[in-house]
Write a structure and sequence with these properties.
The protein has 3 helices and no strands. By secondary structure, it is mainly alpha-helical. Helix 2 runs antiparallel to helix 3. The longest helix has 15 residues. The chain is elongated. The relative contact order is 0.20.
């Protein structure tokens, strides 16, 4: 059960990071490898992609 919640939170962080520098996969794997909390910090610390 805890693993499913961990993956769902990581997935949510990845979805929030789609339009950021690292994209979905960068934030998703960053959240899995470290923790979702660190992934969230990375998400808020990064800039949006330039168009």
């Amino acid at each position: 059960m805890v693993v499913i919640i961990y993956l769902c939170v990581s997935l949510l962080i990845g979805l929030l990071g789609i339009h950021r520098k690292l994209g979905f996969w960068g934030y998703f794997f960053g959240s899995i490898i470290f923790t979702p909390f660190v992934g969230l910090i990375l998400l808020f610390a990064s800039d949006k992609r330039k168009t």
